[in-house]
Please model this.
Amino acid sequence: MRAESLGRLFSPRSVAVIGASQKVDSAGHDYVRALREFNFEGAVYPINPRAKEIAGYRAYPSLEDTGASVDLVICCIPANNVPDVVEACGDTGVPFLHIFSGRLSETGGTEAVALEATIEASARTRGVRLLGPNGLGIYHPAGRIAFRPDLPRASGSVAFLSQSGNNAVEVVIRGSARGLRFSKVANYGNGLDLTPGELLAWLADDSETAVIGAYIEGLADGRGFYEGLKKAASRKPVFIQKAGRSEEGAIAAASHTAALAGESAIWSSMLRQAGAMEAHSQEQLLDLMVAGSLLARPQGRRIAVAGGGGGRSVQSADACASQGLTLPPLSPDVTEYVTEHAPNLANWVRNPVDQSILAGSGLSANAILAKMASSGTYDVGIANVGEEWFLGRPNAGARLRHACKRLRETIATSPIPIAIILGATELSTEWQRQLIDSVRDEFIESELAVFPTIERAAFALGRLAPQ
Amino acid sequence: MRAESLGRLFSPRSVAVIGASQKVDSAGHDYVRALREFNFEGAVYPINPRAKEIAGYRAYPSLEDTGASVDLVICCIPANNVPDVVEACGDTGVPFLHIFSGRLSETGGTEAVALEATIEASARTRGVRLLGPNGLGIYHPAGRIAFRPDLPRASGSVAFLSQSGNNAVEVVIRGSARGLRFSKVANYGNGLDLTPGELLAWLADDSETAVIGAYIEGLADGRGFYEGLKKAASRKPVFIQKAGRSEEGAIAAASHTAALAGESAIWSSMLRQAGAMEAHSQEQLLDLMVAGSLLARPQGRRIAVAGGGGGRSVQSADACASQGLTLPPLSPDVTEYVTEHAPNLANWVRNPVDQSILAGSGLSANAILAKMASSGTYDVGIANVGEEWFLGRPNAGARLRHACKRLRETIATSPIPIAIILGATELSTEWQRQLIDSVRDEFIESELAVFPTIERAAFALGRLAPQ
Model:
C-alpha cells in the first residue's frame, strides 16, 4: 500500500498530454480540451512534435522540452511507444502516468501481454505510478480535470471507480442527471499498477468523498482489494457492482480488461464480509449511490408510503415487503388526524396511503405523509407522485408543480428520509416529457432522491436500512 | 360464461353517460368529451337534468327521455343512486352498464357491501351486464371510445385488463410511448359481474387482439379466471402481473378493490399451468408486452449481442446468462468475415461484440450483428446502441442518427428478432434528452422493440424464448 501519495494523481499541479492532437475527434485532443474547458488552474503541456498549439495551449515536441516538473502525464500514443514514455517520466521525475493507450493484455495476444509486463517492470524500477492502461483515467471536477470535456462541472462527495471506460461515462452522465455530484472518478482499465484496492484504501481517507461506488469485472490482487474495500466500507457506504458474474460474462470480461472474474457466490460473500453493499446491475448501483448520497441513512426498516392510486399502493406494498421493509399501520395520531378531517375515511385509509380514495375529502396524501413522517412510527418514507393522473386533468402542469412543491416542503421538514417516485419520461408527447423532466429537475436541484419505480426505491432503501 | 355477447360493450352503437357534467374537471365530463374527441360515430346521450348541452352533445334529463336504444350506459353518479340506474337500464333494454362510481365494497363498510350486492342482484334479474363498479371502464381506440380524452388515437392488437384504474392509465400511457398499440383495454375495478376470466375468454376469440396483458390484484372467481386464462393463453401470448402477492400488498389490495389476494406461490404455479407468463412489476409487464407485440417469438435460446463498450458487453453477457439465454461463440462464417476485414481482431472479437475494440478497423458492431443474425447460429439478437459514447463526440446527433439508421436497416432484413437497448433520458442537458427521445421515436415508428436496459430486454426474451 502506497496509498498516502495519490493526492497529486487527482489534483496535479501540472499535466502533460503525450499524443496531444489538433484533431477534434480524438482522445489526444479531448484530454487537452477538457483541461481548457474545466479551467484547469495549473500548467498544461500538450506534447506533439508537429504542433505549435493545441486547444489554446503551447505544444512541446517532448516531455523533456517542457523543462517543467510535471505531476501527471496522460499517454495517448500507441502501446508500442509506451515504454519510451515510462522512461521519459522516470527521467523527468513524473510521479503519475495515466496510460489511455490500449491493445495490451486485454487482447490476449502474447506480444501484447509481454509488452504490458515490460511497461509495469520499467515503471516500478523508475518509481512511476501507473493508472491504466486501457482506461480513461481521472474525472475530478473540483480539481478541474476530466476525461471528457462534456462532463458536469459541479463537484460533490460521490467517488466512483470503474474498470470499464464506457461504463464510467454512463455512470457519470446518468448519475449526474439523477443528482449525483462526484468527488473523484477513476477508470483504471487493466489496473496494472494502481488497483481498485489501493484506490479504495485511499478514498477511505479522502475528506472530499462521503460515498463510494465501484464497477469491477475482475481482479489481479484479490487480497489487496479486500483490504482496501474493508477499510473504505468501515468509514463510508461502499457500493460494488461485480460484473462478469456468469461464465459468459467472465469470458467477455477477459477479452475486455484482462482480469480474472471470480465466482459469483464467492464474490457476494466477500463483499458482505468486507461491509460493502452489492449491486447486480448498473441501474441498482446508481440507485444505491443516489440513496446513499441523497438520503439520510434509515434508522430502521419501518416504511411509510403515500401517493398514487390503489394499484400503485398495492404494488408499493409488494415492493417494500419483498425487500424486507415493514409497513406498520397508521399510528394513532395519524388515524386521529384522518378521522378529524374525513370521518368516513377513518377505517379505510391505510399504509400505503391511496391518494385516489382521498378525492373530495380535503385531505391529501402529502399531508398524511407529513403526519406519518413525524409520528415516530416510521424510519423512512416513499412518496409516489403518480404523475399520470395529473396529465389527464385540466391545468396538468400547474397542478403537478403545486403538488411537487408541497412534497418538497414535506421532505424539507421531515425527520425521516423520504424517497420520491417519479417515472421515466416514457411519454408520447413533447409537453408531457418536458413537464416531467422539469419537475424532476426541480427535485434534483433540491438535492432529493428520485427513483423511476417503486421497486427500485424499495431495493435501495432495503439495502441501506439496518438488517 | 356468456362471453359471446361482449362485442357491444367494446363497440357500442350508442352511449349514454349518466352524471354527465359541464364541469371540465370531472369524470362525468371526461367520458362525454372523450367520445367527442375520439370522433365516436354512434349516438351520444349525456344525461343531466340541469344541462342542455355537454361537450357539444344535446343533454337529456333521464335515460328514458332519450327515447333511444342504448348499447352502453356509463354511470358516474354517487353509489347510492346506482340501483335506480340499473333499474332504468333494465326498463329501457340496455345490455351493458359500466359503473364508474366507487365507494362500494372496496371501502369494507357494511352498508356499502350490502349496496353492491343489491346492485348485482338487480342487474342479474334484469339481464344487464355490469362492468365495474369502481373502474374506469373501456378504452377501445378502433371503436372510438376511451376512458380519458387524452389517450392515444392509434389502435393496434394489444389487449389489456386492469383491476386498478390508475394502473390502467399508466400502462396505456407508458406502453404507447414504447410502441404498444392497443386493441381493447378494460379497467374492471371490483369485477362485480364481468370478471377478468370472462374478459380473457372473450379476448381469446377477439380477432383484433394478438397479445394480452393483465394486472390482477385478487379474484372472487378463481375457477372462472383459470378457465378464461387457459383458453386465452392457448391462442395468444398472455402476460399477467399479479399484485398483492405479499401479505402487505394483499391488505392494500383489499382496501382498494375488495378482492381476495391469493398466495404468491399458488398464483405462480396456476399461471404457469394455464400457459400464461408472469410479470412481477409493471415494468416487467410492459417489457413482456413490448417483446410479445413487437418481436417475432424467438425459436430458441441462443442469443447474439453486439454494440456498446467492453463494460456493456460484460454486463450483457451476465444479464443474458442469468435469464438462461446462451451466447454461442461467433460462427465460422462470422469469424471469417472479421478475419477478412481486420486480421488482428480475429481472435479478439467475441459474442457479445464489444464495439470499442473495433475502432479504426472499418468494422462496425452493426455489420457484425447483421452477419450473426443470418448465420443460423442465433435465435434472437440484442443491439446495444451505447448512446453515451456518441454524446461525447463531435456531430453527436448526426453520428448517432446514422448508426441508428443502419441498425434499423439491419433489423429490417434480419431473419431473427432483434431487441434494441437505448437508455432512458437520464440526462442533464436538454439537447441530449431531445436527441435520445427523437432517436427512440424513430425506432418506435418503425415498430421496433426498445428496452432501457440490457437486463430488462434479457428478462423479456428469456421468458418468450422456448424453455
About this structure: Chain B has a mean pLDDT of 94. Residues 124 and 193 of chain B are 9 Å apart (CA to CA). DSSP finds 18 helices and 17 strands in chain B. Residues 396-413 of chain B form the longest helix (18 residues).
